[in-house]
TrEMBL record, chains A, B, C, D:
The lineage of its organism: Bacteria, Pseudomonadati, Pseudomonadota, Alphaproteobacteria, Hyphomicrobiales. InterPro entries: GlcG_carb_metab_protein, PduO/GlcC-like, PduO/GlcC-like_sf. This is Heme-binding protein. It holds the Pfam family HbpS-like. Coiled coil: none annotated. It comes from Mesorhizobium retamae.
Amino acid sequence: MTTFPINKANQIITGAFAKAAALKLKPLGVSVLDAGGHLVAFQRQDGASFLRPQMSSGKAYAALSVGMGGRRVEAIARERPHLTAGVSDLSGGKILPVAGGVLIRDNAGTVIGAVGISGDTSDNDEIAAIAGIETAGLTADAG
Amino acid sequence: MTTFPINKANQIITGAFAKAAALKLKPLGVSVLDAGGHLVAFQRQDGASFLRPQMSSGKAYAALSVGMGGRRVEAIARERPHLTAGVSDLSGGKILPVAGGVLIRDNAGTVIGAVGISGDTSDNDEIAAIAGIETAGLTADAG
Amino acid sequence: MTTFPINKANQIITGAFAKAAALKLKPLGVSVLDAGGHLVAFQRQDGASFLRPQMSSGKAYAALSVGMGGRRVEAIARERPHLTAGVSDLSGGKILPVAGGVLIRDNAGTVIGAVGISGDTSDNDEIAAIAGIETAGLTADAG
Amino acid sequence: MTTFPINKANQIITGAFAKAAALKLKPLGVSVLDAGGHLVAFQRQDGASFLRPQMSSGKAYAALSVGMGGRRVEAIARERPHLTAGVSDLSGGKILPVAGGVLIRDNAGTVIGAVGISGDTSDNDEIAAIAGIETAGLTADAG
């Protein structure tokens, strides 16, 4: 069962796209996953390439699978690539270990989902993800 | 590149959910794929189980991969199960060969994408998919 | 290394398309594989759905992998589905066990490759494959 | 549905082979993919090794999946190998992240497909791909 409400997921995507428009980012794919790593909502802007669904979900999945934001996930991938390779295998090849995957926390600090964005630079993807989460009144943890 | 506009995809999902509400269907997952079988938009209603993303996409992917609506896809699966099993293998296990995957055609009859819905009975899933496509002013081909 | 000449492969595809045009078949995908099961040439006609590359190759691969034309391959799939399922697994999911995969034999009767066609009915796919092989002056073995 | 015309795909292959002959390149495999990453046409020259179908398609698929020419794809693979490894996993192992995959753009700059070539050095593969695309009156984007 989903543990993340669809209306919040849609708010996140709307907020992320608004930030992307303000910053004139490239076309994005935005995935919102629940705490179990399952997709709640996804949108791909016109012109975004076709692997953006998997890439955006993969960033969010990576963050959720180890309970860390994508920035820390990517730092680990640089420092201990064998660890990240193992995690990827164990996940069934579902993770993209780079910035742009951001944990969503509630007011108590509990992880209730994650956002992954892919399309512009990883730094800009992350900025849009944080903006989306804050639009929905939730707390972003980019790592 | 996406070849199906995101605003049309969102209209389809909104239209499908409206039909589902009118018919009091169970919580749904709705996937809209472009002509190449790549996800453009997805939404999962509160209470829908976690495999609905893959199940809804799998119905749409099955229809697109052979150029037939899901109703015909399912009929073939009954008549020639070895054929459908082979297609599933060749697709990398991406297809769900049942009703509820509906091709989207433009005014010229060209396939421009597909909708897949999963959550209620296959018949009801299909009804919601057709309603969504028609909401967006496009032509549904359920097979 | 390829053991089937590209000029013969192209003649086969041209011949198959000519037969398809004469019979007004639906848009086809045509694969020509060498005796080792590796692709030599492929063409997909405008309007053919996107899994036709895998489906046409899968028919030819199935025929080559057991040294029988696709018609016999499909008969076995109906009679002993567990056998076909096992072969599919062993092949890494590369086979489509239906008619439309046709072995290519030289004048001595040796199998030197196979043609697979997908797009119309399996019977019509097979007719086009046989026509293509004969256009190239080779012998077709449909099983 | 294919979104790239077969006659243009064949012109590209003919043009690439003509360039290869002029430069005395080694035997090549040439894949032309539509915008959704699906094969439209492939030819493997006599003497080209048997994995050239996958290698040439993998270059084109890599370029399309992230919307960048193969030269940039390869640069990213050197700088952020964990990113490329993740993309490879997410694609189901379908990408070859090296030069020789070239995006095809129409006059408006829209990506409408990609060419991948494998058989000689990556630089020479790329030269032949660009020549093929220009033969068909289209614009090459090697990254």
